[in-house]
Structure formats: structure tokens, C-alpha cells
Structure prediction request, 208 residues.
Amino acid sequence: MTSSCPSNTSNVASNGCKLLARAYANRSYAYFQQKDYSRARSDAEQAVKLDPNLAEARINLANARLKQNDRTGALNDYKQALKLNLSKPLKAGVFNNMGNLMFAQNNAQAAIQDYSQAIGQKSDYADAYYNRGLAYSNSNNPNNAISDFQTAARYYRTQKNYKLADEAQQKPTSFNRKTLTKPRCLRPLLPVKHPRGRVRNQELKIED
Prediction:
């Protein structure tokens, strides 16, 4: 692909640049799925340059940065994505990912705030409840942790994900900090699959 698009200073891309940006965003997703995070990041960066308002490209870039342990860059891109026009489910996913990032930095209180924001956008977000339960348990708040794990288990069962439901239900029995699992990271994955395709487990389309 070539990236020849007229430069502009208004952050408004032409139709041709928008289409090219989507193509780069989609290829970024493909590289991400192949665990080629360097190329995923490169294509996402190109997509953002071509269309600064393509939120999905910004999220692709954040996810790739996070996989490369560029936490500062990832957090900045997530925050930039939140300034754009996102559906509530996608915004919930961004907050969840930001919470995971804060959790990885041992900032449980900030993680709890982000997970709560995710739940505020999507009240049945089982992963966010599970992750917040981990953060609460890491903050010596077992009562809130147990409540969140039970809520996560209920929503997982509603979604017919019985394996995760059982895991969440059993989680309060392993409140040893050394044995805590990592939060459910980047699930659902947020990069775009196709110009008209759905984001994984999210109701969002890219319109022509």
C-alpha cells in the first residue's frame, strides 16, 4: 500500500485518505492477530496519520504499543481514542484496557476507577467486573472483590461462557496476592477486522 495523501492541518481526512486509513487499520489488525506487533503498530500509526478521527486505528495503535510494553504511549492513545466518537461498548472496552494497564503498573485504585467507568458504559461487562474484583482483592477489599466476582460469574453464565463463570465463582478462594491471575487483557480485542465488519464482541461498524 502507498500512503500518498495530501497533507492537511484541519484533522479532516478526504474520502480517499479515509479509505486508505481503513485499509491500514485492517492490516494492522491482521498483523496483531499474527502477533507481529511491530508491523501492527507501524500500520496503525500510518492509519492515524491518514485519518486522525478514525478511533479504531487509534485503539489498534494503543493495543500494539501495549504489547510492546510502551505503556505510556498506549495510555496516551487510549485517552485520545476516548475523545473521538465511540459507541458505549467500544468506550467500555477502552476503559477496561486502561484499567488493565493501571493494574500492570500496580496502581489498583486507578485500575478500579477505569473498570468502574467501563461498567458504567456497559453494565453487563463481565470482564470488567472480574478485573475490578482482582483489583479490589489486591487492595485488601475482599467484600467488594467477592461481589464483583459473583457478578462476573452471573454475566458469564448469561453469555453461556460457563468456563469463565466457574473461574470467577471460584476466585474468592484464592485471595493470596502471589497467586492472583492477571486481569482479562484486551478482551474483546478492539482492532477493526473489515471496513464493514464488527469489532470482536462489539456492535460497531465502519461505514463507507
Q: What stands out?
A: The CA atoms of residues 174 and 180 lie 7 Å apart.
